[in-house]
Write a structure and sequence with these properties.
Blueprint lengths: L2 E3 L18 E6 L9 E5 L7 E3 L16 H4 E8 L6 E2 L1 H5 L8 E5 L16 E2 L1 H9 L4 E4 L13 H7 L4 E4 L9 E9 L9 E10 L2
Length: 211
C-alpha cells in the first residue's frame, strides 16, 4: 500500500508567508561540543510549512488547534488536480469536479512546484464563492499546496471565514507534486499545542492509497 508523505520539510531558508517568522534551527546542546546529547532549538511560526488552521485563526472565542476532531483529520480524501493555467479556484471550476459524498478535498496546483523558491505572491488560491460551495457540499476539510488558501492581501479573509466559521478544517502547505489525482486516506496530525491563541500548528500529513 503506497504511502505519500505530502509534508514540506521544515528547514532554514524555506519560504514562509509574508510577514511570518522565519525558520531558525540551531543546536541547544551538541555531542560535538562535548555535551551529553544533541538537543535542537526550534523557532518558527505556527503556520510554517505544512500546517493546520483552526477556527481560532480568524474567529475569536471559537475552537482552537488542540480541540480539532481527529475524525475529520483522518479519513478518505480526494486529490483534485488543478491545471497550471488556473490561478483562482472558482465555483465554476468546482462545478466540473466530482465532489459527490466527498468530505475531504485536497487541491493539487502549480504551487507544489514552488517549495524550493522564495515566497511566491502569485500562488493559486481558492475564491470565497468556491469556499462557500464546498461548505454547501458538506466538505469538512480543505487542503491546499501553499502557505495560504486565500489570495494574498485579500483584505477581507472571506475564504478563511467561509470555511472556519462552519468548522471546516483548513490544511495549508502540502506538497502534492508526486500524488496523482484520485482518492486516498488522509492522515494529518497537527501538533497539540495547548497554549497561545490556538490559531494553528505544523502537521505531518500523509496519504495512503485505498487499494
Amino acid at each position: 500500500m503506497p504511502i505519500y508523505d505530502v509534508t514540506v520539510p521544515i528547514r532554514a531558508g524555506m519560504p514562509v508567508y509574508e510577514g511570518d517568522p522565519g525558520v531558525e534551527i540551531k543546536a541547544w546542546s551538541a555531542l560535538a561540543k562535548g555535551d551529553s546529547s544533541n538537543v535542537s532549538f526550534l523557532h518558527f511560526g505556527a503556520h510554517t510549512g505544512t500546517h493546520v488552521d483552526a477556527p481560532a485563526h480568524f474567529i475569536a472565542d471559537t475552537r482552537k488547534i488542540d480541540a480539532l476532531p481527529l475524525d475529520v483529520l483522518i479519513g478518505p480524501a480526494r486529490v483534485i488536480r488543478v491545471p497550471d493555467d488556473v490561478n483562482e479556484i472558482s465555483a465554476n471550476f468546482l462545478a466540473a469536479c466530482d465532489l459527490n459524498q466527498v468530505e475531504r478535498v485536497l487541491f493539487h496546483t502549480r504551487n507544489s512546484g514552488f517549495w524550493e523558491q522564495g515566497f511566491r505572491q502569485d500562488y493559486t488560491h481558492l475564491l470565497p464563492e468556491a469556499a462557500q460551495t464546498l461548505v454547501e457540499r458538506g466538505v469538512k476539510l480543505v487542503g491546499t499546496d501553499y502557505l495560504s488558501i486565500e489570495k494574498l492581501h485579500s483584505g477581507h479573509h472571506r475564504t478563511h471565514l467561509a470555511l472556519l466559521s462552519q468548522n471546516v478544517i483548513i490544511v495549508e502547505g502540502l506538497n502534492l507534486s508526486d500524488v496523482p489525482d484520485g482518492d486516498y486516506e488522509l492522515i494529518c496530525l497537527p501538533l497539540r499545542i495547548a497554549d497561545g491563541a490556538g490559531d494553528g500548528a505544523p502537521a505531518r500529513a500523509v496519504l495512503r492509497t485505498l487499494s
